[in-house]
Amino acid sequence: MELDSRRAQAKRAQIRNGALTAFLESGVAGTSMDHVAACAGVSKQTLYVYFRSKEDLLVDVLGGIVTSLDERAPLLADRPVTSREDLRDVLSEVGWVMVSHLMSDDYLALFRIFIAEMATTPGLLTIWRETVPARFLARVEAVLDRARAAGVIKSDLDLDLATRLFIGPMMTFVFLDGLARPDSVLVPNRKRVDEVVDLYLHAVT
Questions:
Q1: What's this model's pTM, rounded to 2 decimal places?
Q2: CA–CA distance from 65 to each of 32, 33, 106, 120, 152 (Å)?
Q3: What superfamily in CATH does domain 53-204 come from?
Q4: Alpha carbon of 202 to those of 150, 199, 205: distances in Å?
Q5: What is the pLDDT along the chain (205 residues), one digit of tens a residue?
Q6: Lowest CB count within 10 Å: 26, 97, 127, 131, which one?
Q7: How far is CA 47 from CA 26, 44, 73, 190, in A?
């Protein structure tokens, strides 16, 4: 089977959606591959063609958040960052994708399950950290590295700290206005995200 074909990609998406449904219904620990197959509407044999384990499914479901960044900004990795305005445009897109996707109902519900199960499910925290935060951090740091090379941001900036300084405010929206408000999530609008980006640029340029 050619797993890179359009049909295969559609099947992976079908299974991913089924896995998300299963995780939300039963939690991570309580979800079996049989349950995922049933939710996805595929045979267990088909499921194992695409995903070898529940851990692989978790990585794929969580990775969809970061993949969305690449889909919405396909040239992000190669986009020139030779001016303050270039940097603002890129960071605005990254920030908005982070906030809007991480604060969707399904992902907030999944994160709450992760938080509840992290203490009792070995490896769950590592999967989450390496699949979502670490990948967002890497993408932002790559953008800042290009901006520093072009003289757009201060030459003596510690890129790791500068990256964390950008990610941190975005995550406060997720945690304080999303996870901490299960009955009334307050997703910031794009203008609010842009205001955070502007404050950030005052600090690093």
A1: 0.82
A2: 23, 22, 11, 24, 28
A3: Tetracycline Repressor, domain 2 (1.10.357.10)
A4: 17, 5, 6
A5: 455 688 888 899 899 999 999 999 999 989 999 999 999 999 999 999 999 998 899 888 888 766 766 665 555 666 789 999 999 999 998 899 889 888 988 889 988 998 888 888 878 888 888 888 888 898 899 999 999 999 999 999 999 999 999 999 999 999 999 999 988 999 999 999 999 999 999 999 9
A6: 26
A7: 18, 5, 30, 38
* Tokens 């449904």, located at residue: 21
DSSP state of 188: P
Domain coordinates in residue numbering, the chain: 1-52, 53-204
Q: How far is Cα 28 from Cα 19, in angstroms, rounded to an integer?
A: 10
Tokens of 49: 């063609």
Tell me which amino acid residue 183 is: D
- Please tell me the distance from the alpha carbon of residue 45 to that of residue 42, in angstroms, as a whole number: 8
**How many Å apart are CA 13 and CA 67, to the nearest integer?**
12
For domain 1-52, the CATH class is: mainly alpha
How far apart are the C-alpha atoms of 81 and 88, rounded to whole Å? 9
Structure tokens at 162: 């500068």
**CA atoms of 175 and 133, how far apart (whole Å):** 13
- Positive or negative, the CA dihedral 61, 62, 63, 66 is positive
**How big is the CA angle at 54 (ends 50 and 59), to the nearest 5 degrees?**
80
Distance CA(49)–CA(3), nearest Å, equals 9
